[in-house]
Each structure stands twice: as structure tokens, then as C-alpha cells.
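Hi there. Long-time user, first ticket. I'm pasting a complex I've been working with (about 693 residues overall). I'd like to know whether the download I got is complete or cut off, because the file seemed smaller than I expected. Thanks.
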Amino acid sequence: MMKRREFLKSAAVFVSGAAVSLSALELLDPHEVLAQNPELRWGFLVNTYNCVGCGMCVKACKIENDIPLEANVTRTWVERYVITKQGETYSDCPKGALNGFTSKQIDQNESGMKKIADADISEAFFVPKLCNQCSNPACVQVCPVGATYSTADGVVLVDRKWCIGCGYCIMGCPYGVRFFHPVEHTADKCTFCYHRISNGGNTACAQACPFGARQIGNLKDPNDPVTKAVLTERVGILREEFGTNPNVYYIGLSKEVR
Amino acid sequence: MIEQVAQMLVHGEAWTLKDLFVLPNEYVYWSIQIVLYPYMTGLVAGAFVLSSLYHVFGVEKLKEIARFALVFSFALLPVAMLPLLLHLQQPLRGINVMMTPHFTSAISAFGIVFMTYACIVGAEIWFVYRKFFVESLQRLEGKPDRSTAEGLLLVIYRLLSLGARDLGGEALEADHKAVKILAGLGIPVACFLHGYAGFIFGSVKANALWMTPLMPVIFICSAVVSGIALCLVSYYVFMELRKWAAKRGKNFFLPDAVVHGRAAVDYEHLRSVQNHEVKMTSKYLLIFMLLAITLELLDMIFRGYTAVRSWDALRQVIYEHDFVKIFIMQYGIGNALPFLLLLIPRITARRAALASVLVLFGVLMMRWNVVIGGQAFSLTFKGFMHYHLPIIPYDMETFKEGLGGALLVAATPFVIFYFLNMIVPAFMESRDEGH
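Hi, the file is complete. Here it is re-exported in full:
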């Protein structure tokens, strides 16, 4: 017959022993270990000083990723900003800059073309945009069926076979990078050319850029040129206030850019 | 492939006009169907709340309209789902939401909430009408020469009775109790269903107009308003039709007379019931309207007062581009005018019905101004998008997301109600005293 004191004692030993061994099991969960120390986290660096608005990146992206050239949606685009000496800012992005910026006039859509005399311009620059592959992506949060997801190496993808086309992710993205694919009729977005970078290649846009304005890299590798630039140079990110933690960094980001 | 699809329109391009600086992928992606979705959901929830006023709180004055509101709410139910389905780019995959619900998304649980609500309304109708089912069943069974319609009806009633044929006092008492419980349970679920629709919009942090914690509450209040108004208008119109038909013996307008004999369809009686119910309901409409308008104005005043960065763009949308839609159509014709109509003393049923029509229009405009207005400005806050409702469709998409699709959605509940009314007569007056 076991005494109560003995019973409590051995029960305590058993419970604590079991707890320790179980917690060890949990510590050794390979998924968790990998998640805490992934070797790879894709990031992107845009040097706005190098961009001339030629639109090669947009064209390359559309061809590489089968987005119809003439369809007015695009996975990546280039914006032009013109700031006058009076302090007014004009921006445009005709056809996503598929054909580059061939006119000095600013395309104001319904309001027509805006002419600005060269002498009035105080500053002008181009800003390429693409998906920020956020660490806390709003689009993944709002997808009702889980058709859009973050990969372990930090790229947000869309499952074209499962997307129902509700458009909630398009509404949820603060950067406007999502759209409906005109042929697939599912949500579509920049994937950092996941099919290429996963096989050791470069993104189509970065490869097509003649001026090295675009660069993909591994943010977990301190020797990666992108990581080095992010750590040592003055870089900016877009729309911090939404708490999405974007992974596209910009060198020379102006306050006019949103 | 690339050359073949030159000139192709992308989704949203057909009805979106861009002005100034708008990002290349920005369009009015959520159009008329998403305007109708919260509108229809609101009508469902509002109609149910109206019926519960009688069933739960025992507001005897609303007895007759309560029964109608309950059946009508059930007829509206499938239609709350219809606009969602119509706006999907992959409508056949709609069921995926039930198969792999991704619960961080505000719309993933909609199906579940919706089904729960449908079960509650369905069950309540069953308990309210069980006595009627059994009585009709017994009457039809006792009839020696049944017509085809009657035979069919007998089968339906046999199925609907679920074999529960006990009409003893205890059983009927249990029915009443169940109705009360279900109606009570239904109110929070109905509010949740619609508050949830508000949350779907209110939680989109990328949208400066939608993102406010007030959105679910605003949606619930306007839902109750629109639901009551629709019940009032429909009740008025249906009773007019019934009066007209009763006078002339036109049975096709009196489905219950077709199938259940021409018993209680008497012109004078119909008139007095109609008057009484419509006037009473209009009082409740007024109370809920006050609440809804207060909240909406609070939201707008707060935005103007705090004037965060997005206000510049919002102000332009609210006070310039959409001024007529917001201040004339929504607040003027849709709120202020019916408010006055309802406040002027010695209200008549006709005036109450007219005011309700305006209220319905006002709530529709409110949904429009929220859904379309929320997409009227670019994420850059430097450009605007104007929405043009496709009137004459030239393909499936412009039909679905155009006037045709909208009319289809608006007409469906009435078709459903016509047939539903044959089986569960919404205008039947019960002679017992229970709730």
C-alpha cells in the first residue's frame, strides 16, 4: 500500500520528468528549428539613382511570366516623378512604363497630358515598384481559402488552382501590386521570379535592367551585396505605417514616393 | 500567346475611368455585386430583427408583419449569397471557402455564420408553421379527390412535418417556446452576420475610407433600417395586391387562396390589418434610422476633424466627386426626406410605404458610397477612379457586374417568396394567442 506522501512525491517526479522530456521533443521539432534559423530570406534592393525609366524590366517581366503585353496590368512597373520649382509634384506611369517614358508630358489619365517646361523642373526621377514580399503580408491574411501563402524563404505566392478570385487580397494590398490575371482569372502578383531564383537564376527584371537598378539577394547572408547595402547604406521602405514589414529596400527614396 | 491577346480588357477596366496618378493595377475591382452583397445581407438581418420584435419582445402590434418578415427573411437568404458568387472570378470554386477556410481572413467564416443563421431561420419557420403543416396535412389526407397540386402539396407537407403530428396542448406549447428561443438566438446571430459584413470592409487596412472600427456597427444599424423598410414596403405592396385580388377574385395573386381555399381573404379585413401593421412598423423604423444616421455622421465628422493624411483625398471624393451621391441622394432623399415624412403627424400607410421606399434607396446609396466610394481614390492619394455601371452588357462580365446582374439579384427574393408563400403562407393570420 502506497502512502499519500509517497504517491504525491512520485507523481511530482513523474510529471516533471515527463514535462522535461516532452519539452525536449518540442525543442527538437525540425520545422521550428528551421523556422528560427532559415538560411534564406529573399530580399530586393532598388537603387532609384540608377533607374532611367526605360521599361526593360517591365517588358522582361511580362514576357517571362506570361502576362499579356497589352493588358493594362503588370507585376512590376516604373513610376516617374517630376517636381516643379513651385513645389508641385506630378507623377505618371503610362501602361506601367512597359514602353518606357518616351514623352516629356505627364500622363494624367482623364485630365489629359500635362506639359511642364524644362525650366520649371527642380527635380525628376524614376521609381521601380514590385511586390514587397512582406514579412507580415496583408494579402495572405485576408485570403479566405489560403490560396495565397508565404514560402519558408519569404516569397508570397498564389495557387492558381485554388484561388476563387474574390479580390480580397487585391483590396488588402497597400501597394497595389495585385491584379486579376486576364487569362487565368485568378489573383496574380510578382513572385521575385520564384521559378528562376529557386534554381539559382536571377529575376527577369533584374537581369533585364541595363543599369543595375534592381538586385535580388538573400537577406540572411551577411556577405550578400543586397544585405550589405541594406545594412550599411541609407535605405527606405514603402508605407511603413501599414505594419507589413516589406522586404524591398530603396536607395534614394523620396518622401514624394508612396 | 502574347500577340493574340492584344487589346484584351482586364477585370475592372470596362467600368473604371482613371484620373491623375493611379497605379497601373488599380481598378474598381469590387463593383455593383459587392454593393448588393451587404445590402442583401442587411435586408435578411433586418427582416429577421423585425420578426423577432414580436417573437421575443412580444410587441403584439407587429404580430402580422412579424410572420411575413420571417418568411421573407428566409426568401432573402439565398440571395445574400448570390452577389458573392456572381462577383467571383472563379465562381465554381466558391465552395473552396467551406473546404479550406483560412481563418485569418474575415470572409472565410462567412459561409459558416451564414449557414448557422439559415438553420436558425429555417428552424424557427418550422416551429411557427408546424401546427399549420399538420393541419393542412390532415385536411388534404381527408380529401377524397385531390388535384395534382394538392397531391404535391401533401407530399411536401408530409416531408416538412418530419412526422411530428402531435397537436396536443403540450406539444404546441413546446413549439412556442422553441420559437421564442430561436428568435432570441437569431438576433445576435443576425447582427453578427451583418456586423461581420461590416468587419470585412472595416478591417481592410489598405483602404482609408473603409478602415474604421465603427464600420460593423454602422452596418448593423443600417441593416436593421433597410430590413424593416423592405418588409414595410413589401408588406404594403403585397397587401395592396391581395386587396386588389380579393376584390376581384384573382386567385393567382393569392397563392394561399389557391392552395388553401378562399377562407380568410376578405377585403375590409385586409385593409385594416395593412393599415395597422404598416403604421406600427414605421415607428420602429424611425428609431433605428436615428441610430444609423447618428453613427454615419459621427464617422464622417471624426474623419474631417482628425484629418489624417488620407483626408485630403477622401475630402475630394466626399465633397466633390461624390457630393450628389452622398449628400443629395443618400442623406437628402434617402434619410432626411423620409425622416420628415415619418415625423409629420397622422401618418398613413401610403406615406409610411413611400418613406420606406426612400429609406431603401438611401441605404442602397450608402452601400454604394462605401463600396464604390472606397475605391474612388488611388492608393497614392494622388489620383481618382470613377465607376461607370455597365448598362448594356456585351459579355458575361459586363452582365454579371452590370445593371442586368443587379436586377437579377434584386428580383430573385420576390420569385423565391412567391413559391415559398404557397407552402408557408406568410399572410396567414393565426387565431391562437401564443407567440
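A couple of notes from our side: The beta strands of chain B are 16-20, 383-387. Residues 1-6, 431-435 of chain B have pLDDT under 50 and may be disordered.
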